[in-house]
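Table S2 (text version). Query chain:
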Amino acid sequence: MMTEQEFDTLWQRAAAAPHATRLLEEYPVWHRNRQRRLGAAALLVAVAAVALPLLTLPQPAATDKNHTAIYCNRPDITDQYWDELADALLMEA
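Corresponding structure-token output:
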């Protein structure tokens, strides 16, 4: 004859068997989807890590017209020449 504890144990196993079977069948799909989500999240973080510094680089002010210096690696050309050239180019545009 079976004791009450043995009966409860068998009852719990019988009740849990369909759930365990379903979990074992669905685990590969769940695991694959989880890996895809982790991969997509990692890709998003990598793209953000690359794009954020590029988007936050300081941009030159478009309205700044007060140029105080002209730099040239040819000392025989005067600053006046470059200033006049820049004026002429800006007037053509």
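Notes on Table S2: The chain has two helices and no strands. The radius of gyration is 37 Å.
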